[in-house]
C-alpha cells in the first residue's frame, strides 16, 4: 500500500473505461490494447503476416503476470522466475532495505535459491480462465430503473458471480467491466503470495537519467528485476513460461502482453473537459505540493533520502504523466479531433430514430453527472484522494472490515467482498517495516492538504486536527498507534466490530471520526457518477458498435491485453530518432550530463565498461499501444520468445490516455540482449542468464 | 523585474501594514522593527545601556541602502563601496553571466576599478530626509465618506505631496503608509543607478546547504557581495559610510539597519484566517507548481540549469517561507494568542462608549472586506499574481504608461506618478539580456496556470491562448515580439498612445486584450480591500495607541527600520544551539553531507582549506527582529561599526510575519571576520579587505 501508486507505467486502476474505435488513418496502424479473447487477427495477418493460434494466445496469457504493486510481468523460466521492471519491484526493494543495506543503492543478486529474499506483501496473479458474464450481470436490471439503482443491482450480481466462481474454481475471481459497461467478463487468476527477490540492479542504472529522461527517448535504462514464485516452500514448476530470443531487428513485429491500467479514449467531450479543468489540475496541484514536500524531507539526511525515495519517485512520475496528459487536453488539435469524432457519431445516431431513442441521451447522462459532481468534487478529492498513508489505509480497512463483513456479500464495498478478502489480508498483515518519520510526513501532509482545501473552520478539519497543528497531530497519531505491528492489526480485524468499537488506538479513533463522511462521499461517487457513467457509456458503446462495427478494443482496465507494433523510430523536432540505443550511447550521455541530478552511474558500470560489448542494443522503441500499468510487460516475437521488457512510453505516448497517434507514440523497452550482457559481464550472474536462456537444463 | 520576487529575506512589498504592540513577556525583549524617527530609546538604554545620539541615528540612516531588487545594503567605504548579500545581488550576477562566463558558478572579483562591471538596472536608494505628512494626506477626507472614496482622496494627496517634494528637493520622494494608515511619512531618497559589481563569491559557498539549510541554523554561508556606486563616471565620495569592527562576542548588542518588507502582526483574526485559508494556500499552490516546473526546465541541459537558477531559487525560498508562515497559522498556540490579544483590545474599546463609537467597527470593516473578496479572489490572483514574466511586465507597463501619463498625476496608478517615473524607466529600458527559453517557460507557465484556474472555456483564457496550447502560444509571443530590445520598448513608450494603439507587436496586442480585466481587478482590490483595510486598521491603530500607548512600531513596509538584540544562541528539540559557527564546522558539515544536493563546495574552498584559520567565526545569530527585505542589512555595534551582515532568519523566525517570540526567533548573519579572512586568504582580494578595514587610506 503506497500513498501514491502511479509510477512510470505503473498505474492505479481507474474505473471508467470504454471501448475505443480504431482510426483508419495510416498513423494509427498499431493502435489498440486488445482483449486476448478478441485479438486483432485481421490486422496482424494483413500487416505483419502473423496469425496467432489459440495455443499461442493461451501460452502467452498463462505466462503473463499481474503484479499487485500495479504493474505487469511474465514468467520466464520453468522454475517460476518472473521478470518485471526495477521500478515495479522498487517498493519491495525499499521494504527489504535498511539503513545499513540499501538495495536501491547497491542492487541485489541471490547466487543461490537460499539467498532469495521473501517479499513482505507482493501478490502475483496469472490469468487462467475467462468467461463472458454480461447477461448474468444485467439479469436483474429492469426497464426504467434509475442509473444508480441499476448500478446497485449489477454490483450485487457481480459480487455473487465472483464468489460462486471462486468457490468452484479455487482461483481468485473478478468481474471486469469492459467498454464501460457494455460487456462484463469474469477473470479467474492463479494467485501467488510467496514471491522472492532474485535480482535487481542499482537504481542509478535502472533509472539512469532520472526525472529528466523519464518518458523520453533515446534512453539507456536497465529497468529490470527478477523474482521467483514459490509454493509450499519450493519454486513452482510453471506450466507456461516464455523462452528467451536471440534478439530483434528494426522492422520486426513486437507483441506486448500486459496490464494497461486506465485509458479515457472514449470519454465524451464533456467528460474530457472535466478531466481537463477539474480532475487533472486537482491531481497536479496535489502532486506539485507532494513533490516539493518530499524533496524537503529527503534533504534532511541521507537516511531520510533513502526512506523518502519511493514516494518521491512515484510523485515525480505521476506529475510528469499528468503534465503530458494535460498538455494533450490543452492542445486544440487533440480536442478538435475528439470533438469531430463525437459529432460524427452523434449525427449518425440522430439520423436513425430507433438508435436515437435507445442511445441518443447517453452523452447527456455523462455530462449531467460530471457537471453535478463539481458541487462536491473538492470535498470528495480531499477525502478520497488526499487522506492517504499506510497507517490511514490500515485504520480505514480495519474499521470498515468490521462493518462490511457483517453485511451480505452483494452489499459490501468491493474490497470486502468474499472474492477480494484474501488479497486484502495479504496487504493488511504485511510484515513490511514501517518508518515513523515517513508516516509522520505522509499524515502531516494529508492533514495540511485537508486544512488548506477545506479551511480550518471546517468541522471535519477540526475533528481531524483535534486542536493541534498537522505536524503535531501526525506525530501524536503515528507515535501512539499500535497499527505499525501486523499482529496488532490482525487482532483488531479478528476482534471484529466489538474490538473496533472498544479500541482506543489513536489511528482507529481518528478513522472512526473520518469514516462517515469518507463513506458518504464514496457512496455518492459510486451512485451519482460511476453508475451514471456506466449507464451513459453503455449506450454510447452500443451506438458505436452499431455505427462502426464491433472490431474494437475496450479502454484499459488493468486487465490482460495484447498490444502490437513494429520496432521503428520516429521523427521529433525535425530529427530522426532511431529505434535502438546501445551501451556506447549510454556512456556518451553520462559524459555529457555528468554531475547533473539523475545522471550518476554505479561504480560497477564505470569500472566494468571495458568488459562490455558497447554495441549491445540497450533500449528500443516500438509502436505498440501501451499505457501506465504496462510496466514490466514482456515484449515477444511471433514465436512468443522474449525480445524485450517494456518500461516506459515516450513523451508522445502520454496523450495516449485520450488518443493514439502512431506517428510518434512509442513504447520503450529494455532489449533482451542488454539484460544478458549486463548479467554475465557486470553482475557475475551467469547462472541467472543461463536460466533465462534455457542453458544447462 | 522578476516573475517572483521573494528570496530568503528579500521580499516584495505588501501594502497592508499596521503598528505592532510590544509584548511585556520576557521572551519578547528584543522585539520590534523601529522607525529611526522613534527608536526604542528606553528599551535600549535599560536593557543594553545604549542611548543612540541623533548623530548616530543620522549616520547609520544615511549609510543604509535600499536595493531595488528587494533587499537591503550599506555603504561600507568612503569610496561608495556597498555591501549586501550574494542572494540580493544574484539577479545582477545572472544578468552579467553568459553561457561561457557563469558568475554564479565562478564568482567575481574586480582587481581594479576598471574591471568593475556595470549592472544593467540596479537602483540603490539612500534615505536622506523624513517628514510626517499625516495631516496633509488626510486634509481632503470628509466626515461620512466611504472608505473607497476616502482612499481615493488620500491617494491623490499622496501623489501630489510626493511630486512637490521631489520637484523641490531633487530627491526621489515617496509617501509611506505607516500603522496601516494611522500615520503617513514622506521619505526622500538619494537615488543611484550607476552601480558596478566589485566582488561576489561562488554561489556554492554563498548558499552552502541549499534549500535544505535555508532558514536553518547552524549555517556556514559566505552570503556577501560588494557593489560600488558611481556618479558621472566616478565612485561617489560618500558623506556617510560604516566602518569595520574588530568583531563581536556572545552577549554583545547587535543593531540591524534594514528594510523589512512586510509583516502582518496587527492583522485581525479574520484577516489572518484569510491568509491562512485563502492567500497563503493560493501562493503555495502556485509555488509548488513553479518549483516543479523550474526543476524540469533546469534538468534539460547545463545551460537551462544556469538560466533557470535565479527563478528556481526565488521560488524555493518563497515556498519555504510561506510553508513556515502557514505552519505558524495552523498552530493553535499562535492563533490562540492572537485571538486573546484581539479580545482584550476589543473589550477595552467596548468598555469606553466614546472609543467604541469612534473605533468599535474597525474589526468588522476588515472582516467584511476580506470576506467579500473571496467571491473574486481566484480571478484576482490569476491576473494580478499569476500573469507574470519579464515580457508581460514590459508590455503591461508600456500599454498602461501611454494611458496613465495622459491623466492628471493624482489620478494615476502609483507606478506612473511623476515621482515614480524615473525608477520605472530604469526598469523599462534595462539593457539586461533576455533569454527566449526562459521567457517561453515563464509565459507558458503563466498561461497554463490561468487555464487551470479559470477553466479553458473562460473568455479571458480563450483570448489569452488564441486557439493554441499554452506552450505554442508562449513561443509565438516570445519569438514574435520586439520588446526584447530596450530600444524598441523606448520607442513605444515615447510614441505614446498612438504608437501603442497602432502596434502589432504580439506582446502588446496580447496585453491590450488582457488589460481591461487586469485593471478592473486591481482597481477593485484597491477600492474594496486596500481602502477598507486602511480605514479599519486606522481605527484599530488609534484604539491601540489609546489603550496601550504609542510606544510601538509599525508593521514592516520595505522602509528603513532599526532592529536590535543580543548575540545569543537558543534551545531547539532539547539541544542548545550556540550563537557562532566557524570554518571548521563548515568543513565538517561538508564531509557529513558530501554528494547531496546543495552541499558541494567550490574548488577554491577545498584546495584553500589549509590557508584558513578554521576557528574564524563564520555565521552568528542574534535576537534582532527581522523579516524578508532585511537581506543584506548591516549588523553594527554601538559604535556603528560593522560586525556582520544579515542574510537569513532561522526557521522560528518565519512565524515572525505574525508574531515575534524571542525564545527561538533569531536573525542569521555572516560574521565580519569571516568576510575578511575569506577575502584575504582565498580570494586574493587584499585590496578590497583593506578598503573595508580602512587600511592604506
Can you describe this structure?
2 copies of one chain form a homodimer. Chain A is an alpha+beta fold and 697 residues long. Helix content of chain A is 48%, strand content 15%. The first copy, chain A, contains 25 helices and 22 strands. In chain A, strand 11 and strand 12 form a beta hairpin. The two termini of chain A are 38 Å apart. Chains A and B meet through helix 8, helix 9, helix 10, helix 17 and helix 19 of A and helix 8, helix 9, helix 10 and helix 17 of B.
Draw up the topology in text.
The structure is a homodimer of 697-residue chains.
Chain A: E1 19-20, H1 41-48, H2 54-63, E2 64-67, E3 71-75, E4 81-84, H3 86-95, H4 103-106, E5 108-109, E6 117-118, E7 124-132, H5 134-138, H6 147-169, E8 172-178, E9 183-192, E10 194-200, H7 203-206, H8 210-213, E11 225-231, E12 234-235, E13 253-258, H9 269-299, H10 302-329, H11 332-350, H12 353-359, H13 362-372, H14 374-386, H15 390-404, H16 418-428, H17 436-454, H18 459-465, H19 470-480, H20 486-502, H21 506-548, E14 553-554, E15 561-566, E16 570-572, E17 575-577, E18 580-582, H22 583-593, H23 603-607, E19 617-622, E20 634-636, E21 642-649, E22 667-671, H24 672-681, H25 686-693
Antiparallel strand pairs in A: 1-14, 2-3, 2-7, 3-4, 4-11, 5-10, 6-10, 7-9, 8-9, 10-11, 11-12, 13-15, 13-20, 16-17, 18-19, 19-22, 20-21, 21-22
Amino acid at each position: 500500500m503506497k500513498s501514491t501508486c502511479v509510477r512510470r507505467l505503473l498505474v492505479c486502476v481507474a474505473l471508467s473505461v470504454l471501448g475505443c474505435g480504431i482510426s483508419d488513418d495510416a498513423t494509427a496502424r498499431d493502435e489498440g490494447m486488445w482483449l486476448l479473447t478478441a485479438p486483432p487477427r485481421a490486422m496482424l495477418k494483413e500487416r505483419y503476416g502473423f496469425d496467432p493460434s489459440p495455443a499461442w494466445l493461451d501460452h502467452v496469457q498463462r505466462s503473463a503476470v499481474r503484479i499487485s504493486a500495479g504493474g505487469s510481468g511474465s514468467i520466464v523460466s520453468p522454475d517460476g522466475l518472473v521478470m518485471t521492471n526495477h521500478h515495479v519491484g522498487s517498493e519491495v526493494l525499499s521494504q527489504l532495505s535498511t539503513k545499513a543495506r540499501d538495495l536501491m543503492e547497491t542492487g541485489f543478486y541471490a547466487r543461490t535459491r537460499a539467498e532469495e529474499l521473501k517479499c513482505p506483501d507482493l501478490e502475483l496473479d496469472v490469468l487462467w480462465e475467462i468467461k463472458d458474464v454480461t447477461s448474468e450481470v444485467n439479469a436483474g436490471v429492469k426497464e426504467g430503473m434509475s442509473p444508480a439503482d441499476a448500478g446497485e443491482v449489477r454490483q450485487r450480481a457481480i459480487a455473487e458471480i465472483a464468489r460462486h466462481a471462486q468457490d468452484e474454481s479455487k482461483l481468485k475471481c473478478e468481474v471486469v467491466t469492459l467498454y464501460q459497461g457494455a460487456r462484463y467478463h469474469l477473470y479467474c487468476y492463479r494467485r501467488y503470495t510467496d514471491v522472492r527477490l532474485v535480482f535487481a540492479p542499482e537504481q542509478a542504472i535502472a533509472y539512469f537519467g532520472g526525472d529528466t529522461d523519464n518518458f523520453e527517448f533515446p534512453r539507456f535504462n536497465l529497468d529490470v528485476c527478477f523474482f521467483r514464485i514459490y509454493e509450499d516452500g519450493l519454486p513452482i514448476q510453471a506450466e507456461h513460461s516464455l523462452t528467451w530470443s536471440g534478439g530483434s531487428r528494426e522492422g520486426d513485429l513486437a507483441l506486448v502482453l500486459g496490464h494497461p491500467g486506465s485509458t479515457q479514449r472514449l470519454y465524451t467531450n464533456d467528460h474530457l473537459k472535466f478531466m481537463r479543468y477539474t480532475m487533472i489540475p486537482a491531481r497536479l496541484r496535489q502532486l506539485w505540493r507532494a513533490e516539493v514536500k518530499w524533496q524537503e524531507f529527503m534533504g534532511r539526511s541521507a537516511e531520510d533520502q533513502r526512506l523518502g525515495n519511493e514516494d518521491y519517485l512515484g510523485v515525480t512520475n505521476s506529475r510528469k504523466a499528468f503534465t503530458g496528459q494535460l498538455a494533450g487536453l490543452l492542445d486544440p488539435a487533440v480536442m478538435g479531433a475528439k470533438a469531430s469524432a463525437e459529432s460524427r457519431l452523434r449525427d449518425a445516431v440522430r439520423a436513425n430514430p430507433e438508435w436515437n431513442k435507445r442511445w441518443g441521451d447517453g452523452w447527456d447522462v455523462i455530462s449531467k453527472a460530471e457537471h453535478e459532481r463539481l458541487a462536491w468534487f473538492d470535498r470528495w478529492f480531499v477525502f478520497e484522494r488526499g487522506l492517504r498513508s499506510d497507517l490511514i489505509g490500515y485504520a480505514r480497512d480495519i474499521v470498515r472490515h468490521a462493518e462490511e463483513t457483517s453485511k451480505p456479500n452483494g452489499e459490501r464495498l468491493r474490497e470486502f467482498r468474499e472474492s477480494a478478502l484474501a488479497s486484502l489480508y495479504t496487504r493488511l498483515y504485511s510484515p513490511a517495516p514501517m518508518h515513523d518519520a515517513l508516516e509522520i510526513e505522509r499524515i502531516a501532509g494529508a492533514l495540511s492538504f485537508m486544512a488548506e482545501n477545506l479551511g480550518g473552520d471546517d468541522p471535519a478539519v477540526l475533528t481531524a486536527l483535534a486542536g493541534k497543528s498537522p505536524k503535531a497531530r501526525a506525530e501524536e497519531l503515528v507515535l501512539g498507534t499500535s497499527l505499525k505491528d501486523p499482529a496488532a492489526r490482525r487482532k483488531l480485524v479478528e476482534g471484529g466490530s466489538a474490538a473496533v468499537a472498544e479500541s482506543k488506538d489513536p489511528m482507529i479513533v481518528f478513522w472512526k471520526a473520518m469514516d462517515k463522511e469518507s463513506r458518504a462521499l464514496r457512496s455518492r461517487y459510486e451512485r451519482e457518477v460511476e453508475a451514471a457513467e456506466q449507464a451513459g457509456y453503455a449506450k454510447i458503446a452500443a451506438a458505436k458498435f452499431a455505427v462502426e462495427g464491433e472490431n474494437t478494443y475496450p479502454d484499459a482496465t488493468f486487465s490482460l491485453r495484447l498490444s502490437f507494433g513494429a520496432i521503428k523510430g520516429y521523427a521529433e523536432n525535425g530529427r530522426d530518432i532511431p529505434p535502438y540505443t546501445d551501451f556506447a550511447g549510454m556512456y556518451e550521455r553520462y559524459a555529457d550530463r555528468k554531475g547533473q541530478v539523475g545522471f550518476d552511474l554505479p561504480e560497477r558500470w564505470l569500472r566494468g565498461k571495458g568488459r562490455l560489448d558497447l554495441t549491445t542494443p540497450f533500449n528500443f522503441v516500438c509502436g505498440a499501444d501501451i499505457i501506465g500499468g504496462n510496466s514490466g510487460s514482456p515484449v515477444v516475437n511471433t514465436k512468443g520468445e522474449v525480445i524485450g521488457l517494456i518500461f516506459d512510453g515516450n513523451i508522445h505516448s502520454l496523450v495516449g490516455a485520450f488518443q493514439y497517434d502512431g506517428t510518434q507514440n512509442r513504447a520503450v523497452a529494455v532489449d533482451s540482449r542488454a539484460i544478458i550482457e549486463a548479467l554475465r559481464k557486470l553482475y557475475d550472474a551467469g547462472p541467472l542468464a543461463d536460466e533465462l536462456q534455457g542453458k544447462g537444463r
